[in-house]
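[retry 2/3] Annexin: previous attempt timed out, resubmitting with same input.
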Amino acid sequence: MSYPGYPPTGYPPFPGYPPTGQESSFPPPGQYPYPSGFPPMGGGAYPPAPSSGYPGAGGYPAPGGYPAPGGYPGAPQPGGAPSYPGGQGFGAPPGGAGFPGYPQPPTQSYGGGPAQVPLPGGFPGGAMPSQYPGGQSPYPSQPAPMTQGTHGTIRPAANFDAMRDAEVLRKAMKGFGTDEQAIIDVVANRSNDQRQKIKAAFKTMYGKDLIKDLKSELSGSMEELILALFMPSTYYDAWSLRNAMKGAGTQERVLIEILCTRTNQEIREIVRCYQSEFGRDLEKDIRSDTSGHFERLLVSMCQGNRDENQNVNHQLAQEDAQRLYQAGEGRLGTDESCFNMILATRSFPQLKATVEAYSRMANRDLLNSVSREFSGNVESGLKTILQCALNRPAFFAERLYYSMKGAGTDDSTLVRIVVTRSEIDLVQIKQMFSQMYQKTLGTMIASDTSGDYRKLLLAIVGQ
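[retry 2/3] Annexin: success.
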């Protein structure tokens, strides 16, 4: 589906970033908080600032490897792979081939959501970049002043008591039957950090592993969703990558969705976690599971070395646009390494400026040029990077839509996106979803899922 007014002919003056008059001061170089509102609230900084090597302090299990004896999911031995969830289907590619025309919010600013904890030094004068607030009509013509709170749908619970929650969960699972509603009320209303504390309290109080108990009470998609909610977020990303590559076949879309959309810090955490949990080298696994230009793109992503300077260099954007044109549309054949170099190293705001410069210069849309010059996984990977630069929530909204469109539901993709974005930018994803598909994310989830699984998803999405 194409989106009205995209690609625009000649961009309106406003979307230019940074605001006029503040070119040099906004925000300080070297600080690139992502549009998605990292870090999530709750831990303050993201992830729980390991002090003694990884994992360690801050809600991660004690050194000695995760899981604690007794297992998280299926206690993978070094070199082995986690045994959960059964069989194929985790993150299988959605039916929709390719990504259609891409919506572009005129006022997207590259600042984090309001929950952003500014890096030391903060934004000048304590001000934050503006971003559309939760309740507003999707895109105000001027960026509205920021509302306080996060852009995730899940916020840390006030007056949180891990022991009380552990007791509620124990009661919900004791005796005959399971009180699923009680479980939903607890997990959907606690941040990931708080869920880690509940897990620890449960083991301290009852000498049992909460995850094992939950697995024995639940099954199917509901089990997958609850387990995902109880994994520390870095571990969940690492586990999803491992799961996408183990066994026969590779779920390339999962690799793209995680490696092409995360921040440098998150990618480095994922690489460390992958090594410590599964005793494997992520880059080696990628090399043995992929090939060609797609392999090179993912290896580039694995480095977690993208420039994160907030300031846009318009001169460089012009030059890059020219280079991309000459590497693709302006010649016979394609110089793939030029695309890889620019898309893997430039900051997201810089790439956004490059897309705009390209459409002025070549009078065509860079996303369409990528579709014409590339195919298959490398095309999806490059387009994902550009889509994140233009409008990250729209990228995730589209993935959610295709996970539910047509016959059957790609539950793993649905679960993964709802869980991983729930404390980051799910509010914006919902806004983009309604704007792009003329229905709310909640209605689509409600018509595509059932039972407690539906109830819990809707509780997270905030319907």
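[retry 2/3] Annexin: Residues 8-20, 22-100, 106-150 have pLDDT under 50 and may be disordered.
[retry 2/3] clearing retry counter.
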